[in-house]
């Protein structure tokens, strides 16, 4: 079976592949404005996950998310 086939239906091109695009910044939970990246730290004992610390420039709220590289 080819890489593009799954059962009887063809898979869309690029389906199942990791996108190297920049992750979208979350909205601040307090003021709903876009947050900026403050720090990126590799997660211990993994090779493809980072902890990203976001900060709102307006109200100072910080938010940590784990994202796939």
How many DSSP helices? 0
The number of E-state strands comes to 5
Q: If strands are numbered along the chain, what order do they take across the biggest sheet?
A: 3-4-5
Structural class, please?
mainly beta
CATH class of the domain at 21-68: Mainly Beta
> Helix-strand pattern, N to C?
EEEEE
User: Looking at the structure, what is the overall shape?
Assistant: flat
Q: Which consecutive residue ranges, at least 5 long each, have pLDDT under 50? A: 1-6, 14-20
Helix content: under 10%
Summarize the structure.
The protein is mainly β and 69 residues long. It has strands at 5-6, 9-10, 36-42, 49-55, 62-68.
Give the helices and strands, then pairings.
Elements: E1 5-6, E2 9-10, E3 36-42, E4 49-55, E5 62-68
Antiparallel strand pairs: 1-2, 3-4, 4-5
Give a verbal description of the structure.
The chain has a domain at 21-68: Single Sheet (N-terminal domain of TfIIb), CATH 2.20.25. The protein is built from no helices and five strands. The protein has strands at 5-6, 9-10, 36-42, 49-55, 62-68. A three-stranded antiparallel β-sheet has the order 3-4-5, with no helix packed on it. A hairpin with a 6-residue loop joins β4 (49-55) and β5. The protein is flat, with a radius of gyration of 17 Å. The relative contact order is 0.21.
